[in-house]
Amino acid sequence: MIKSKTIIVDATHTKSRYNQKSGKEFLMEKSKNLRKSVYQFDESMKEKFPAKTTSNEVQHELDYCQKVIGVVEKEAHIARIPAVQEKLNVLKEIVEDYTEQLHFSADPDARVGHKTEDSSFFCYKTHIAMNDERMITAAIVTTGEKSDGKYLQELIEKSQGTGMEIETILGDTAYSGKDNILYAKKNELELVSKLNPQITQGCRTKEDEFEFNKDAGMYVCKAGQMAIRKARQGKKNVGKNQRDIYYLDVEKCKVCPFKEGCYKDGAKSKTYSVTIKSTEHKDQEAFQNSEEFKEKAKARYKIEAKNSELKHRHGYDVATSAGLFGMQMQGAMAIFAVNLKRILTLMKEEE
Is the pLDDT confidence value at 162 over 60? Predict the structure, then answer.
C-alpha cells in the first residue's frame, strides 16, 4: 500500500484532563487539608487558627500557611498524631519549596504549552510523522512545552524502522533548524521546510535551556517562562551580524528555581539573544524559493486533517488519564485506530 517516499511531520497538543491550579489555590487546598485533619481530633483548635486571608496575593496566602503550621506545631499532642503529621509535613514542604512561578495540578507530567504569544494551556504534545498515503508512521508523546523541531530526526528514524523508504520530509518552520538541515544533507534527504531565521541561524550559548516556540514567535526558558517582548539589534549588511534580543520578566527570574547560572542577583533585566547570520543557509533559501519546493509544500495540509481526525473523532483533544505513560497509551490506541481505518479505505480503493 505504501508507494510514496515522503513523510509529513507536525505536532499536536492534547489538553490535560485536569485544570492547572495557581500557587494560591494549591496552598489554600493544602492548608485546608491540615485544618480538617486537626478538627477531627480537636474542634476547639478552630479558635486558635488565624483568620483566613481575603487577599488574592500569593505571598499573603503563604504567610497564612506559615501561621497555621506554627499553631499546629505548638500543640505537640496534636502534631504527633500520624494523620495530622502527614498533612503538616506536606504543607511545610510546599511552603519551603514554594516559588511564585511554580504551578501544581493533579497531573504530574502535563506542562504549559503555548499556541500563541498570549495564550497557553496545560497539555501534552504528540509529534507525528505521516506518509503520503495518510498513514502515521511514527509518533512521540512528550510534555507540552517541548520544541517540535528537536524530534524530527527521531521521527525519521522511527519511520525508517517500520520499513519505509524516505526521500522527502515536509514540515513547517519549526523543523528548519540548523541541525535538521545538516542531518537532511548528510542523509541525502530533501527537507521541505521554510526557513525561519529566529530558529535556524546564529550561535546560542544556552540552546538546550531556551527553546523557540514557533506559534508564539518567542523563546521559552526551561522553567516555562516565555519572553515578553523582543527587539532586533544592528543593521543589515553592516559589519557585525544582527541579533534578536528576547526580554524575560525579571521579577519571575528573581524567584526562579533555575536562576543559578542564568540570572544574576540584582540584575535589572534578563535577556536572551540570537545571532542572525543571513549567509548561513543559502542552499535552503534558494530551494524554498523554487517552484519544486512550493509544489511539494502544498501537501502539508494532509497532516492537519489527520490531527483533526485524531482530536474530533477519537477524543485526542483531551487526555483520558493523568501522567505521561497514560498519554502514551492513549496515543497508541488512537493512532492504531486511525491507521486501521486508513488501511481499510486503501484496500477498498484497490478492489
Answer: yes
